[in-house]
Amino acid sequence: MIDCIVIGGGAGGLAAAIEIKRLGHNVLLIEREDKLGGILNQCIHNGFGLEIFKEEYTGPEYADKYIKLFLREKINYLIDTTVIDLYKEEDIFIVKTSSETLGIREYKSKSICLSTGSYERTRGQISIPGDRPYGVITAGSAQRYINIDGYMTGKRVFILGSGDIGLIMARRMTLEGAKVLGVAEIMPYSNGLNRNIVQCLNDFDIPLYLSHTVTNIKADDSNHLKEIRVMKVDDSFNVIKDTEIDFQVDTLLLSVGLIPDIILLDQLDVEIDPLTKSVKVDQSNQTSIEGLFVCGNALQIHDLVDNVSKESQRTGKAIDLYLRNTNHSNKKISFIPGVNIAYLTPQYIDFSNPNEKVVVSFRPKKKIEKSLLKVIQNDRIVYEKKKMFLLPAEMETIELDILHFDENQPITLELEVIS
Amino acid sequence: MIKEYICIVCPRGCRVNVDENLNVSGNQCQRGKTYALNEMKSPTRILTTTIKTTFQDMPRVSCKTDKAIPKSLLFAAMKIINQMTIDKSMYIGDIVIENILDTGANVVLTKSIKESTNEEIYFSD
Ligand code: SF4
């Protein structure tokens, strides 16, 4: 019997597996691709590792650090292996896998750490009107084509959405000789990190059209992308008349957000949070199903890989406690996102949990210059902190001590705007 | 005249102001001051890109300049790197181009590339 099966061999899975193994458990990690490292392998730009290593690494370098630690721990792992089924029988998880070399296999485990990352929102999910030609792809796919497979996806490019991957691809394609005509962002502010606006757009004079969106897509006779139309939107995202700008492009990159990939949990009756589009968890990142833990982008979308590593290491520690503690009663109270909070994790605080420190991650609903962050229970402010320059593009974390709370009442987190 | 920069040294992205007497404000740490002053005189960037290889299972390998190079030389450096092909095993950190364009920066691999990149399957039950 395996103590923990970690699904996903990217930043999250590696950090969690290393921690669980170090704490004395036997672990099996399963990765779908033929290499460990996950999405970091295609993120060849630098900026990773400043929080953890105090140095700036590229994605592959950051992955390499963790892969080496992982291999040193002699953790069992499978690559080129897809999990095709995951369910629970009594207290045991059954994981069915499929691979070319081993065929269909079945493994049994006491716990699961799901770190399957996220997928990109596509054209269908944001419903852009117009033709359906070749040349409309997500920024992440383009990144893979260029950086791993080695071919360009076009010469004249427009980008919809100012997420970090889109911004980074604007620079990447420019350096490789393409002309990037602009980036349209439907919000009145960018969704990417400031530093990426500077070094990916401003450095190359690529215009950013805030409060703009793509309203039409046209194909040529051979069904390749020929032209897109961009228009301004008002505060409620309605298109404003007579603001059309047409761009002749052969590629439209979509960088319109990531969604946690938790499709493997379909067969398990697990509680979902519509705000994070992932599962609800307690401070151990344990879901409503005992023994099932989720971390990394599968739990919430992070903007820094360093935070994924830290969160996953914490999850590994929690899995160790779970495996050693046979008494799993739970006394959970809800942790609710209040005024100006777009989402938060964990959604529950479990008072029977030995983790007294609760690391809370959240994003503000809008850009807020000065604010007072308040944690409220029974109309009483239990925790308060001043926060400056909050942006939806930047995840915030705070640490709470559960000993300060009453075990029966829900807790709310809110941001009061101050001047 | 005050110039405003957004510091790109770390993800915090501080707004850093430099006035005509080169007084720097708004930076949350010392690195932001160095960055802003440098950005005024001669902006530099680390270049990250890929190099062609002859390996079928890894047609591109990632690389970077080990120091920031002048922003104005980015495209010239890309041209040189794009003419290269790697045809043997090399390791992360290995120098592929020394002192590119006399900038004092080397182009180094950010990933290892081996004759056989197939990792062994470690699990046995
Ligand atoms: S000034 Fe310091 S803290 Fe602020 S962005 Fe620059 S490096 Fe980061």
TrEMBL record, chain A:
InterPro entries listed in its UniProt record: FAD/NAD-bd_sf, FAD/NAD-binding_dom, Metab_Enz_Cyan_OpOx_G3PDH
Annotated FAD/NAD(P)-binding domain residues: 3-305
Entry annotated with the keyword Transcription regulation: no
Name by which UniProt lists this protein: FAD-dependent oxidoreductase
Signal peptide: none
Record Pfam families: Pyr_redox_2 (PF07992)
Keywords of this entry: Oxidoreductase
Lineage top rank: taxon: Bacteria
An MF annotation (GO) of this entry: oxidoreductase activity
The keyword Oxidoreductase belongs to this UniProt entry's keyword annotation: yes
The species this protein was found in: Hujiaoplasma nucleasis
TrEMBL record, chain B:
Entry-linked InterPro entries: CPE0013-like_sf, DUF1667
Superkingdom assignment: Bacteria
Pfam family, one: DUF1667
Signal peptide span: none
Record-given protein name: DUF1667 domain-containing protein
Organism, scientific name: Hujiaoplasma nucleasis
Lineage per the UniProt record: Bacteria, Bacillati, Mycoplasmatota, Mollicutes, Candidatus Izemoplasmatales
